[in-house]
Amino acid sequence: MLDSLVTSKTRIKLLLKFFSHANSGYLRSLAKEFEESTNSVRVELNRLTDAGLLLSEDEGKTKLYRANQSHPFYTEIRNMVSKFLGLDELVEKIVKRMGNVEKAIITGDYAMGIDSGTIHLVLIGKDLDQEYLNFLTEKTYEKIQRKVQVDLLAQDPGDIHGILVYGA
């Protein structure tokens, strides 16, 4: 869906990153997270910043990027990203009722900007309600016609590559 509108996979990843949650990021960390060259990420960050969709601020020798919430298309892009991911309601419900969710990270194809039909989600937290999660994933499939595959972890191993949609 998004990949037919936006031809740059790196740009899709950046839009998903910044418009799915109030994320911010630095060039090098984004390049590492996306497993892309810093040059390709820099080019897309510059394009999105020049278009006014992202804001950048200097922090010492580095720049911190984040979504420009005052941009006229901010809400529309955020809604498109949420629909693309199909997880806006699921993550909101999970955080409210699953227990102590520390982080929710989209991994796999959707984190790469590819609509494969299966959304991989990693939830990190303690004492999470697996039964309620099973109920939610079934309801999500009925609603958005995408399978949701969830991995539960008690602790963050620190090496999960994807898009953080909840937590810090």
UniProtKB/TrEMBL annotation:
Superkingdom of origin organism: Bacteria
Protein name, per record: PaaX family transcriptional regulator
